[in-house]
Design brief:
2 copies of one chain form a homodimer.
Chain A: E1 6-7, H1 10-23, E2 30-31, E3 35-36, E4 40-45, E5 50-54, H2 67-74, E6 80-83, H3 89-96, E7 101-105, H4 108-117, E8 122-124, H5 127-131, E9 137-142, H6 156-165, E10 167-178, H7 186-197, E11 204-211, E12 214-215, E13 219-222, H8 226-233, E14 238-244, E15 250-257
Parallel strand pairs in A: 1-12, 6-7, 6-9, 7-8, 9-10
Antiparallel strand pairs in A: 2-3, 4-5, 4-11, 10-15, 11-12, 11-13, 14-15
Chain lengths: 259, 259
């Protein structure tokens, strides 16, 4: 045996269990079949770094959000696509505010949790796949650090083009990012240098998620500075209109359709 | 890059960080250099199963212990060796009760945390190494599931012989184990079957621990039924004198020097 996980819907299983812990609906994870066990998301980086993060925050209501999430939601207007809707914490708040919101996710299990929590409009798939559905939006949300979905230099143009193809005139993207370059931790600075030597952006993380017996394939997830984001956006249908870095190193980037 | 961790003192780093979180002493782990991050121990099994467990419990005082831990401590008498002392939660309670207790651990970082928390008598090494030190004990504690340290059929005789070599006449071992065979979860029952096909005990786990960039080598850790323990003890210097399974599937096994 090699210690390799089975490929599966890591995020969906994780959220199903977190939902069961939070609500008592469905089988709850137990240690030894007896003691309650918290749901922990495990994130591996390709240099061997691993991080465990409690999953309960995916279900948090606005009172428990970080301030940048509240500011992001205050910027929403019009028909909104929540890209990577997760367990629906943002979409539920927007519904409560009367905003027409659609939740998009590649995880069938995440959408199942969203549905059970009351999110009404859900789409299973990637943004590229969603273009063909003919829906159009005024606001795209990439919260929960989901600016990372632009992956890096190779993927960014196609990702931003798909968002543009889904956009109504005057549309905006509100994206939550993290500037990774403030650290002096050699585990991180060494990784950034190694990335650059391989022709990647410093914070272009190669990750996989694991939960219990399941893992995702390895994927790229971009943690970049606002300057790097500006460079990636140049020449696309979008322009970087605003960066709110009041909670640095976290920031909210607002993109607007150019022209 | 392969995703493989660097070999190091996983347990020590984990406990140092857990101690910093609990006390404010030393650098606390932060996400993005800003938000507090809980300390999570990551346990990988060689079939790809992974579990994340908050590490704070290693510092718990008796009020937060599981009932079997309190019953175990009540069984202690005489000079006591706490095998796998960890962050010293058991040793500190014994010191408070006036019991002469020695904490043994292979993790230098764990012993550092014990020292800072006030555990007075500490030994770095394995029980095999400790035999040569000339110290002798009336009680050996294997708590926190540390019955697992007997590993399996190959290691058990040498492990139990080392304890016997450290034992005074009439000595006892108080060991916390977990009966793994109550589950119907195919992730576990399939693993047990595969183990048996390889000539191992069903619950002979092959594990490694990970924390941040560090990992341990793969090691065997035994989760066995009281019956299996009885078989392993047969023919050694010890006899299985008592099994307290009031908190099944967890149990406290008491071994006594035979003859």
């Amino acid at each position: 045996m090699t210690g390799e996980p089975r490929i599966g819907d890591v995020f969906g299983e994780l959220l199903r269990d977190a939902y069961a812990v939070a609500t008592g609906i469905g089988p709850r994870p137990l240690a030894g079949g007896r003691l309650p066990r918290p749901v922990i998301e495990i994130i591996e980086r390709d240099d061997g770094l691993v991080n465990g993060a409690p999953a309960a925050h995916y279900l948090d209501g606005p009172a428990d959000w970080q301030p940048y999430d509240r500011r992001a939601v205050d910027r929403v207007r019009g028909a909104t696509l929540d890209v990577g809707v997760g367990a629906g914490r943002i979409a539920l708040e927007l519904q409560d505010r009367g905003v027409p919101v659609t939740g998009l996710d590649t995880s069938a299990g995440a959408l199942d949790v969203c549905r059970r929590r009351g999110v009404r409009d859900l789409v299973h798939g990637t943004i590229d796949e969603h273009v063909a559905d003919g829906r159009r939006y005024d606001t795209f949300l990439l919260l929960g650090n989901n600016l990372g979905l632009i992956e890096g230099r190779e993927r960014a143009p196609a990702f931003l083009a798909a968002l543009a193809a889904l956009a109504r005139p005057g549309a905006q993207v509100i994206a939550h990012g993290t500037d990774p370059y403030g650290t002096r931790d050699p585990v991180h600075t060494g990784y950034h240098e190694q990335n650059r030597r391989r022709g990647r952006l410093g914070g272009q993380l190669r990750l996989r998620l694991r939960y219990r017996e399941l893992g995702t394939p390895w994927f790229d997830y971009l943690v970049c500075s606002p300057d790097e984001l500006g460079t990636l956006v140049r020449g696309t249908a979008w322009r970087l209109a605003d960066v709110d870095d009041r909670d640095a190193p976290y920031y909210l980037a607002t993109l607007r359709l150019a022209g």
